[in-house]
Amino acid sequence: MGEHIMLATTLLVRWLRHAHWASPAAVQHAIEFSHLAARVTLPAASASELGIIQWHRWPLCLGDDIAYWRPGRTGLQCQRLPYPAAAGLTSTTYDDNFSCSIRDIISLASGKGDLVGYATLDAYAIGECRELVHNNRASIEPLPNWHELRFHGGSGAEESVEGFSWRPWGYHLNNQGGAHHFATACLIAGFLDPELRIKAPLTRHELNTEVAQVILSAFDIFCEPEHHTMNEAFMKRMEAAQIPFAICSAPPPRQDGHHLLLLSCENSKAMGVADIFRAYGWLDFCDLLRKQAKQQ
Q: Which of 37, 179, 240, 284 is the most buried (most CB within 10 A)?
């Protein structure tokens, strides 16, 4: 099996090196640091908000700058500029009279125990809340009324719900406590009262497909780790090959320890780098944005 993988990798490298767009510097970088790039993956399914790409909180949408690195007479020159087009990537609407089935809530903002480590709220309830689980419908009622849950707290002091067009099913509950009780209520309701409803103000975020297309037409975008050796080596190789690139912050939950690498679609050398990174499995954020913009 290992020999087949090695042969496939060797053939890929030979093809890349003979393709008309292939940059030897980018190929060398891809070979040397693929092991680090492979660790950068999409967020795993989670009962917490860490399973959601939060485009509405992407610093670029909030007015943050892009660092453009361009070849100059004395090496790469950096210019930081805002990217106004990104400001319209998401839109937000509100519904103060929203209600949904309790089973439609699939993630929580806060929870005791290893909320992040569970793929679903049901798994979290089974793993963390067994002492609250009872096989009767009457046991559900007191759970959502637990004092840490604020469904009856009044305007401005109640639980709220978020929905995302790029996550077409389910809602996120912005709770401050009561995760055990809420998850248990969800679990029991799944068996005994699936139509049990909750009421809370809804904030809904949507991707603007036209703005997404503007971004997709301008850049190929990859997510990279903030790794000093890897990032410095990339900069030196792009400087030697006279290839421009840009960097900006990643959206949550990838904002810590990662950044986005942007390669201009107007530059053939930069597109060559993008093709190489895509072939070597760099996390393609353009592919993610394209798919999520189509889901709504």
A: 179
pLDDT in tens, 11-49: 455 445 444 445 889 999 999 999 999 999 999 999 999
Burial class, 243, CB count within 10 angstroms (exposed 0-12 / middle 13-18 / buried 19+): buried
Place of tokens 């093809």: 15
Give the tens place of pLDDT for each residue, 213-245. 999 999 999 999 999 999 999 999 999 999 999
Q: What are the Cα distances from residue 113, in Å, to 43, 156, 252?
A: 19, 27, 22
> Rounded to whole angstroms, what are the CA distances from 87 to 56, 215, 216, 252, 264?
9, 11, 14, 16, 19
- What is the Cα–Cα distance from 273 to 286, expressed in whole angstroms? 15
pLDDT in tens, 142-195: 999 999 999 877 766 789 999 999 998 999 999 999 999 999 999 999 999 988
Torsion (CA) 133, 138, 144, 145 in degrees, nearest 10: -120
Q: Which residues pair with 80 in a beta bridge?
A: 67
Q: In terms of residues, how long is the chain?
A: 296
